C-alpha cells in the first residue's frame, strides 16, 4: 500500500509507451494496455518474482497475457524492468524480424512464457503451468527446501471468457484446486463489435464460483491501486482454489475514445496522443520517452528478483548435497535431455509375434518407458480405456483432499475437454520439468486444432496419442471415422504426424517424438489388430519412410501407412500370382521426418524409373508429393464391422451411385494394374521427389 505520484508516473509511462508503439507501427491494440497499466504496475512491481537477467529461472512467477492482442503492454513491462527488450525493439513493434511481434511468441521474446493471441489459449496454458508447478513441487520440494513455490498470473479479457477452450480449462482448474493460479479479468465491457451487451451478458462471477474458483471484485481498476493490491494478496492467501479478480477498467483510459470499441484495435490519432501526453504531464513533442526515475524504480524491483534467485541458488546447492538424486533429476529435466539409456526400454518385435492393435502397442511402450522417463505425464479426454494411455501403477494427479490421488500423480483425468487438454499440454510443456502426452480419438484431435497449431508455433515437445485412426474403428461410423484429419495436421509446419504400421514402427514413433525437443507429435493408432511385419526395424522406421519389401526389377512401388501397409504386402502376392506384376512396398509412417532425410536416401526409397501409388484410407490430398497415383478415401466412411467397412459400398455424393471402398488386396491390385498400364509407355519416369526444389521444406 502507500502509492505515490511516482507510481502514477510509472503507470502513465506504460500508457504513453503503448500509445507511441502502436502509433509508430500504425498497427496494434492500445486500448487494453492503457486500461490495464495500473494493475500491471501493481502486479509486476509489488508481487511478481523474476530476474530479467535470467528469464529461465525455474522458480520465477509466470505471467501469461491471454488477451495477447494487448502485447505492447507486456513488451513495455519487459523493457522497463530490464529484460533484453530494448527501446529499439519497442519501436520495431510489429515489423519483420523484430522480437516484438503482433502477438506474444515465446521463442521470440525474452520473458514471454507462452505464445498467445488466439483468445482463450493463454488462460488455458496458464492452467497447464499451474499444474506443472504443483506437480513439480510435490515431486521435488522437501522440508526446508521449497524449490518451486511460484505462482502463475494471467491477464484475460472478455474474448477469452467467451471462448470454449477457456471454459474447459478453467472448469478443470477448479476441480484440481490450483491455488497457485491467479487470473485478472479486464472487465472493460468492450470487444471488437462494441459493447459486450450485444453478445455477452452472463454472470461471469457466478460461473467461476460454480467452477470452484475464488472470485474477487475490484470496482475501480482505473484508480484503486490499494484495492488491486489487496485483491491480489487475498487471492494468494487462498491456497485451495484458483482465483479470478473481476477488475472493472476503462479501455483506452486517457484517450478521447476511452470506453469505446474505437480504441480497441486501432492506434490513436496524433491529436489524441498529444492530448494524452499533456494530460499525464509528458512532453507532447517527445515519443518513446521514459523518465529515469521509472527505470530506477523498476530496476530496483528487478534487482530484488536477482537477489531472490541468488538466495534460491544457495538453497539449491544445499539441496544438491541433501538430495543428490532428486537434484540430478531436476537438473536433467531442465536441460531437456532424457535419461541416458531410456531407449533400451522400447519394445522390439519380430514377425512371429502376434498381431496387436497399434493403440495396444502404444500402451506397451508407455508401460515400458514410464519408469525410465519420470517427467512423462499423461492423460486422456475421458477415453482412458480406449486410448490405453494409463500404465497400471499410475497415480492420478488429483487434489489430495479428494482421495482420488495426489499432486505427485502423473496421470491427468481431462474429462471430455479435448481443446482444453491441448492447451493445457502446451502450458505443461512450457514449464520446463514436464513432458506431456494425452489421448483421444484421432477424429477429435480436430476439436483441439487451435491448441495443436500453437504447439507447433511454440516449438514445444508433447505427444497426442490419437487412437481409432480410420474407418478401421468400424461400427461407430462416419461421425467418428477421420478422413481429412491427417491431411490437416500434415499441412501444419513443425508438427510430426505418425501412423505406424506395427510394433517396431510404434516404438520408432515414440523414439523420435520423445527425442525431438522442439516439435509436437501426433501418433495415429489403430483399433484393429495389425501383424508384425517382415522388414520392419525401429532404425529404418525412424527415418519416416523406408523400403519394407524390395523387389528386383519391380513394376510399381506401393506406398502406405498404418493399417494399410499389411494389406499392401498381401497385394504384392496378388499382383505376382494373378497379374505377373512385381511390386515394392514402402512404409511411410511420418511424412515430416521423411522430408528431413537426405535427397539421396529419399530417392532410394522412391526412385526414378518406376511408377508409385499411395494407399491410405484417408484423403489423398498431399500424397501427390510422393506418388504418381493415389488410392484413398475422399469421402466419408461407413458404419459396420471394420473388415466389412474396408470393402464396403458407399454413395458418391455427386451421382448418389454406390461404389466400393475396396481397401483389400484385390482392390489395391486392381488399381496397381491400372497404374502400371497407364505409365508403361512413359519414358524416363521421374520420381515425384524430383522437383525444382529437391528437398521439401
Structure description:
- The chain is an alpha/beta fold and 697 residues long.
- The protein has three domains: 5-307, 3-Layer(aba) Sandwich (Rossmann fold), CATH 3.40.50; 342-530, 3-Layer(aba) Sandwich (Rossmann fold), CATH 3.40.50.970; 543-679, Rossmann fold (3-Layer(aba) Sandwich).
- It has a six-stranded parallel β-sheet with strand order 10-9-11-12-14-13, sandwiched between helices.
- β17, α21 (565-579) and β18 (583-587) form a beta-alpha-beta unit.
- α1 crosses α2 (31-47).
- The longest helix is centred in the middle third of the chain and has 31 residues, at 292-322.
- The radius of gyration is 28 Å and the shape is elongated.
- The chain starts with a helix and ends in an 18-residue tail after the last helix.
- The model is unreliable at 652-656 (pLDDT under 50).
Keywords:
5-stranded parallel beta sheet; alpha/beta; 3 domains; 6-stranded parallel beta sheet; elongated; Rossmann fold; 697 residues
Give the biggest sheet: 6 strands, parallel
Poorly predicted sequence stretches spanning 5 or more consecutive residues:
652-656
CATH class label of the largest domain? Alpha Beta
Strand sequence of the main sheet, in spatial order? 10-9-11-12-14-13
Structural class: alpha/beta
* CATH architectural category of the largest domain: 3-Layer(aba) Sandwich
CATH topology of the largest domain: Rossmann fold
How much is the radius of gyration in Å? 28 Å
- Report, as a whole number of angstroms, the end-to-end distance: 55 Å
**Number of beta-strand segments:** 22
Could you give me the name of the CATH homologous superfamily of the largest domain?
A: Thiamin diphosphate (ThDP)-binding fold, Pyr/PP domains
Our count of domains comes out at 3
Amino acid at each position: 500500500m502507500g502509492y505515490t505520484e511516482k507510481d502514477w508516473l510509472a503507470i502513465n509511462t506504460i500508457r504513453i509507451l503503448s500509445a507511441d508503439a502502436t502509433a509508430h507501427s500504425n498497427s496494434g491494440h492500445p486500448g487494453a494496455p492503457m486500461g490495464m497499466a495500473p494493475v500491471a504496475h501493481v502486479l509486476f512491481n509489488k508481487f511478481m518474482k523474476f530476474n530479467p537477467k535470467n528469464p529461465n529461472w525455474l522458480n520465477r512467477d509466470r505471467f501469461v497475457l491471454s488477451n495477447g492482442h494487448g502485447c505492447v503492454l507486456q513488451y513495455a513491462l519487459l523493457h522497463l524492468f530490464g529484460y533484453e527488450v530494448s527501446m529499439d525493439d519497442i519501436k520495431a513493434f510489429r515489423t519483420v524480424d523484430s522480437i516484438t511481434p503482433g502477438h506474444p511468441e515465446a521463442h521470440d521474446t525474452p520473458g514471454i512464457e507462452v505464445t498467445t493471441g488466439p483468445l482463450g489459449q493463454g488462460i488455458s496454458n496458464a492452467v497447464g503451468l499451474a499444474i506443472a508447478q504443483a506437480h513439480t513441487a510435490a515431486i521435488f520440494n522437501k522440508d526446508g527446501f521449497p524449490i518451486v513455490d511460484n505462482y502463475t498470473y494471467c491477464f484475460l479479457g472478455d474474448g477469452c471468457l467467451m471462448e470454449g477452450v477457456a471454459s474447459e480449462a478453467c472448469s478443470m482448474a477448479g476441480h484440481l484446486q490450483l491455488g497457485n493460479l491467479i487470473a485478472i479479468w479486464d472487465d472493460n465491457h468492450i470487444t471488437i463489435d462494441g459493447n459486450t451487451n450485444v453478445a455477452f451478458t452472463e454472470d461471469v462471477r457466478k460461473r467461476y464460483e460454480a467452477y470452484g474458483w475464488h472470485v474477487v471484485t475490484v470496482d475501480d481498476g482505473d484508480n484503486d491501486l490499494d484495492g488491486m493490491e489487496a485483491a491480489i494478496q487475498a487471492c494468494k492467501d487462498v491456497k485451495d482454489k484458483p482465483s479470478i479478480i473481476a477488475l472493472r477498467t476503462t479501455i483506452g483510459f486517457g484517450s478521447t475514445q476511452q470506453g469505446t470499441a474505437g480504441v480497441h484495435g486501432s492506434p490513436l490519432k496524433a491529436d489524441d496522443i498529444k492530448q494524452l501526453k499533456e494530460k499525464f504531464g509528458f512532453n507532447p513533442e517527445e515519443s518513446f520517452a521514459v523518465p529515469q526515475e521509472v527505470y530506477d524504480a523498476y530496476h530496483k524491483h528487478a534487482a530484488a528478483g536477482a537477489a531472490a534467485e541468488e538466495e534460491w541458488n544457495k538453497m539449491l546447492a544445499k539441496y544438491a548435497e541433501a538430495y543428490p538424486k532428486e537434484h540430478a533429476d531436476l537438473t536433467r529435466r531442465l536441460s531437456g535431455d532424457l535419461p541416458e539409456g531410456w531407449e533400451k526400454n522400447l519394445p522390439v518385435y519380430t514377425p512371429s509375434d502376434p498381431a496387436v492393435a497399434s493403440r495396444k502397442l502404444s500402451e506397451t511402450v508407455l508401460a515400458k518407458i514410464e519408469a525410465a522417463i519420470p517427467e512423462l505425464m499423461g492423460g486422456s479426454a475421458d477415453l482412458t480405456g480406449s486410448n490405453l494411455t494409463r500404465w497400471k501403477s499410475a497415480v492420478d494427479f488429483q487434489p489430495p483432499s479428494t482421495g482420488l490421488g495426489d499432486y505427485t500423480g502423473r496421470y491427468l483425468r481431462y474429462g471430455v475437454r479435448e481443446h482444453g487438454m491441448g492447451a493445457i499440454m502446451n502450458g505443461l510443456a512450457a514449464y520446463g520439468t514436464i513432458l506431456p502426452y494425452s489421448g483421444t480419438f484421432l477424429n477429435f484431435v480436430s476439436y483441439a486444432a487451435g491448441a495443436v497449431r500453437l504447439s507447433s508455433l511454440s516449438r514445444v515437445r508433447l505427444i497426442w496419442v490419437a487412437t481409432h485412426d480410420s474407418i478401421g474403428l468400424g461400427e461407430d461410423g462416419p461421425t467418428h471415422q477421420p478422413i481429412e484429419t491427417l491431411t490437416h495436421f500434415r499441412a501444419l509446419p513443425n508438427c510430426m504426424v505418425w501412423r505406424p504400421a506395427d510394433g517396431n514402427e510404434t516404438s520408432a514413433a515414440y523414439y523420435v517424438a520423445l527425442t525431438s525437443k522442439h516439435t509436437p507429435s501426433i501418433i495415429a493408432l489403430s483399433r484393429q489388430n495389425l501383424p508384425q511385419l517382415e522388414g520392419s526395424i525401429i532404425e529404418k522406421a525412424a527415418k519416416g519412410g523406408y523400403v519394407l519389401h524390395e523387389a528386383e526389377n519391380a513394376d510399381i512401388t506401393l506406398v502406405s501407412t498404418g493399417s494399410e501397409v499389411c494389406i499392401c504386402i498381401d497385394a504384392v502376392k496378388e499382383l505376382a500370382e494373378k497379374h505377373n506384376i512385381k511390386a515394392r512396398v514402402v512404409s511411410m509412417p511420418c511424412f515430416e521426418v521423411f522430408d528431413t532425410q537426405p535427397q539421396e536416401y529419399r530417392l532410394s526409397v522412391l526412385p526414378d524409373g518406376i511408377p508409385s501409388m499411395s494407399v491410405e484410407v484417408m484423403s489423398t490430398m498431399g500424397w501427390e508429393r510422393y506418388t504418381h497415383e493415389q488410392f484413398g478415401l475422399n469421402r466419408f466412411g461407413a458404419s459396420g464391422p471394420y473388415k466389412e467397412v474396408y470393402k464396403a459400398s458407399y454413395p458418391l455424393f455427386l451421382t448418389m451411385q454406390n461404389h466400393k471402398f475396396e481397401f483389400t488386396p484385390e482392390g489395391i491390385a486392381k488399381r496397381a494394374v491400372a497404374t502400371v498400364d497407364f505409365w508403361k509407355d512413359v519414358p524416363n519416369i521421374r520420381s515425384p521427389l524430383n522437383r525444382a526444389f529437391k528437398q521439401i521444406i
